[in-house]
Amino acid sequence: MRIGFLGTGLMGAPMARRLAGAGFAVSAWNRSREKATALADAGIAAVDQLAEVARDARAVIGMLSSDDACRDVLLGDGGVLAAMAPGSILIVMSSISVPMARELADAAAARGVACLDAPVSGGVAGAEAGTLAIMVGGDAAVFEDARDILRPMGRPVRIGPVGTGALAKLANQMIVAGTIALVAEAFVLAEQGGADPARLREALAGGFADSIILQRQGQRMIVGDFVPGGPAKYQIKDSGAALALAGEVGLDLPVARLVDGLFRELVAAGDGELDHSALIRQVRRRNGLG
Amino acid sequence: MRIGFLGTGLMGAPMARRLAGAGFAVSAWNRSREKATALADAGIAAVDQLAEVARDARAVIGMLSSDDACRDVLLGDGGVLAAMAPGSILIVMSSISVPMARELADAAAARGVACLDAPVSGGVAGAEAGTLAIMVGGDAAVFEDARDILRPMGRPVRIGPVGTGALAKLANQMIVAGTIALVAEAFVLAEQGGADPARLREALAGGFADSIILQRQGQRMIVGDFVPGGPAKYQIKDSGAALALAGEVGLDLPVARLVDGLFRELVAAGDGELDHSALIRQVRRRNGLG
């Protein structure tokens, strides 16, 4: 079965490799072509023209960087969707806004193409291991059809109708960003209170405050390793989209709003290219410890 | 080796049982005596007079409900400390403030008694299984002496000098309270955005947003089971102490401050006896969904 894959960057490349490893015939397109050709050793065929990625494809997977990139690559006369066969499935696995998920689903439906919004969490390590959390929005029947395609990449769970995969990813990012802020504040309190944050992290392991964020991003904060990882500037894209969605459904979420503001301060201070965990720098700066 | 145990409530009782199970001779005192006599099946001797708990004890462990209870039971002429032998160790494992930890250590030192502040995280389940996270403040040599006593109850990690165990527990509680707030906001966003929070919780498992809080308190939020667990009114004791400590060392921690305020609103609204996870009720109420 042939799968088209759009966007073979940090996350997309290992995801495409997992699909090829599971026996799918994968055609890949990437804006910088060399990132697609680099997958030849896995038997993945790089294609030059966008439309080619849809040829004979049971499904096309998009792992593109933003709503705008999705619109550019998927929609319009030269877009991939126009080349997809009726009955095939468009699966958008990058983090997109809920309105974008709905716009794509509508455009797909108009062509007889099914659509799932299926963003992921778990990072490059999860992509390589095929253990990503995959949050899926879309029709239950389409989800069942696509399950075998998604499974080599991780653990797909259907959240609800179209758009709810994107919503779940925004909720995921709200929790991730907020947990980073909590760990950063706890570590700065420890530092200033005469305790060693490294021992704090070790002591908290296994207790109620433990989390993947405490272990991974906490370790980054301790050693000061802020090479991304996930750049902080992407965090504010997600947290902004989460707040916009909250506003749309009439919700005020004060913790999410405050954390979004802290990340915006971090980016405004010039640290947008650093990992999310660099938020501890902003907690220190706000307290004159920068 | 004899251990005195003060406070055999929800947490203290299984901790005392773990010690007895590891071969220590345990004497137990509790304000409501029947909670101490209920441990007779584990070979634990209930004592009537506070001072008796110190008799022949290598260490006395305090698992008392508050700073005030510690002061009442441990300090003063009729307190346990006055009955402890020089060279023995006072180990305070309940959650106390940093100033209280220092006051106890000073009072102990004046009598030639060593002191550790060693609060725990992991709940009743962790206490029963002997898997508590134990955050220890105090001299390194005393910690080494006490390690064999602590180990049947969980995983002791020394954070630093006296007071840093209490500090670590406050940091732990800041993270716990904040994560509850984040999960509550994410679930309310899911509800209002047309997604099922139960599916969201399931999908997030294993991703970067996963945590013990998402799994346990998240499940409570989904089914609406707010029988404690940990009553919300205790949360504001801890978060208040954390903010006080932050103020003492000149720190403003905006996320911790906001979360403390949300829990105070929850308690003021009459939900102080409910589990921490009932914070989702306050998130709903603030948005007119109560």
Automatic annotation (TrEMBL), chains A, B:
Q: Active site annotated at which positions?
A: K169
Q: Which Gene3D superfamilies match?
A: N-(1-d-carboxylethyl)-l-norvaline Dehydrogenase, domain 2, NAD(P)-binding Rossmann-like Domain
Please report the stretch or stretches of sequence annotated as the 3-hydroxyisobutyrate dehydrogenase-like NAD-binding domain: 163-281
What is the annotated signal peptide range for this record?
none
* Gene Ontology molecular function, alphabetical: NAD binding; NADP binding; oxidoreductase activity
Residues forming the 6-phosphogluconate dehydrogenase NADP-binding domain are 2-157
Q: Which InterPro entries match?
A: 6-PGluconate_DH-like_C_sf (IPR008927), 6PGD_dom2 (IPR013328), 6PGDH_NADP-bd (IPR006115), HIBADH-like_NADP-bd (IPR029154), HIBADH-related (IPR015815), NAD(P)-bd_dom_sf (IPR036291)
Source domain of life is Bacteria
Which SUPFAM superfamilies does this chain map to? 6-phosphogluconate dehydrogenase C-terminal domain-like, NAD(P)-binding Rossmann-fold domains
Asked if the keyword Cell inner membrane belongs to this entry, the reply reads no
Q: Which UniProt keywords apply?
A: NAD, Oxidoreductase
Protein name per its UniProtKB record: 2-hydroxy-3-oxopropionate reductase
Q: Which organism was this protein described from?
A: Tanticharoenia sakaeratensis NBRC 103193
